[in-house]
Specification:
- It is built from one helix and seven strands, in the order βαββββββ.
- By secondary structure, the chain is mainly beta.
- A five-stranded antiparallel sheet has the order 1-5-4-3-2, covered by helices on one side. Strands 6-7 form a two-stranded antiparallel ribbon.
- It is globular, with a radius of gyration of 14 Å.
- The protein starts with a strand and ends with a strand.
- The model has no long low-confidence stretch (mean pLDDT 84).
Length: 88
């Protein structure tokens, strides 16, 4: 990715959850369809385009939070509706 923008945050309450577990749960709650690749990546449909997230983990108020960021790729072209076309 060439840049990223904030997407959503998830509190990491269950130590047995992976970051991908939190991402998939958050995507389901937000109503996004997703797939898992064989190498462990999670891709999801966002404005009819397959997208991917980066993340960082931060401690806040004694709890761990995972901050997910929507990746921006250099082959994306903005559409009038605010989404992106990227040929994937």
């Amino acid at each position: 990715p060439i840049s990223s923008s904030p997407f959503f945050n998830a509190k990491w309450e269950n130590g047995s959850d992976s970051v991908n577990d939190l991402l998939r749960r958050g995507l389901r709650e937000l109503g996004y369809e997703h797939i898992n690749t064989f190498d462990g990546d999670v891709w999801f449909l966002y404005h009819d385009v397959w997208e991917h997230c980066e993340y960082e983990i931060k401690d806040r108020d004694g709890a761990k939070w995972v901050h997910f960021y929507l990746c921006k790729f250099d082959d994306e072209h903005p559409r009038q509706d605010g989404g992106y076309d990227n040929g994937r």
